Amino acid sequence: MKVASNLMVEIPTLRYDDYVTKARSVLRDDVFRELYIVDEKNHLMGYLDISDVLRVMDTKSNVTVKGFIREAAQVAPNTPLAEVGLAIQNARTNSAAVVSEDGIFKGGVLFSELFPILISRRDIPGRVETVMTREPVTCAPDDPILRIYSLIVSSGFSAFPVVQKKETIGVISRRDLLRAGNVRTSVKNQADTTVDRVMTTPVITVTPDDSIATASRLMVDHDISILPVVDEKKRLVGVIDRHDAISGRMP
User: Fold this and answer.
1) Which pLDDT tens digit goes with each residue over 2-23?
2) What is the C-alpha separation between 251 and 155, in angstroms, rounded?
3) What is the rounded distance in angstroms from the CA atom of residue 68 to the CA atom of residue 23?
4) Given 8, 59, 171, 228, which is the most exposed site by the fewest CB atoms within 10 A?
């Protein structure tokens, strides 16, 4: 039986007295949405979410991460993967911290790596309509990419359907922004780079009547975290993400 240590990876850590500007630099340039905070003896104190640090816009701020620490989902190295998934689901995070018996931070388990294993063990019952998020946050193809960072902060999500004339034409994610080499400069300078230049197309969608199992397999097969849910006229009626998909099957 696989346990947390089998999927454990290195996740960047910060000290509680590090500046938020340092955290923002790491989170903007790396794939992680969360960083773990440790003390001087590497004991886990909690985690820092990207939506919190992006709110501090001053590039020379002397604000430390101490005031932004959230309680982390944490598991032991020998925790079964199903229990790791439950910890992540309960915390609504994208990872779980792996800690020793004496609280020493060892690494993390990413939900993106755990999700394929959880859904492979058996099909998830139910239809997309029963778990999808309705009235999702969206953007337009001509929106400046600066707005995506604002959406990450205000909504807590990091991927958004791109809608034009009521039709879903793509998805824009924080990962798309990181893949585009000039994005950080564009965001910093509030340049006019638009969503349509970096969004992912063609868009992979599901319908409300599709099974959750089908949606889950699509997310795994295409390595994406969110699927727009559309009706017969291709109009957006919701979104389903990894958390939604497993919400009905976790013990």
Assistant:
1) 999 999 999 889 998 988 888 8
2) 28
3) 11
4) 59
Distances in Å between the Cα of 63 and the Cα atoms of 22, 66, 117, 208 are: 10, 8, 39, 44
Q: What is the 3-state secondary structure (H, E, C) of the chain?
A: CCEHHHHCECCCEEECCCEHHHHHHHHHHCCCCEEEEECCCCEEEEEEEHHHHCCCCCCCCCCEHHHHCECCCEECCCCEHHHHHHHHHHHCCCEEEEECCCCEEEEEEEHHHHHHHHHHCCCCCCEHHHCCEECCCCECCCCECHHHHHHHHHHCCCEEEEEECCEEEEEEEHHHHHHCCCHHHHHHHCCCCEHHHCCECCCCCECCCCEHHHHHHHHHHCCCCEEEEECCCCEEEEEEEHHHHHHCCCC
The torsion defined by the Cα of 89, 93, 98 and 100, in degrees rounded to 10, comes to -80
Nearest to 2 by CA among 100, 77, 111, 97: 77
Q: What φ, ψ does residue 91 adopt, rounded to 5°?
A: -90, -10
Domains of the chain (ranges; CATH) run: 4-120 (3.10.580.10), 128-247 (3.10.580.10)
Q: Tens digits of per-residue pLDDT, 182-233?
A: 555 555 555 567 899 889 889 999 999 999 999 999 999 998 889 999 998 8
**Other beta carbons less than 10 A from residue 5's beta carbon:** 15
pTM here is 0.84
Sign of the CA dihedral 206, 210, 214, 216?
positive
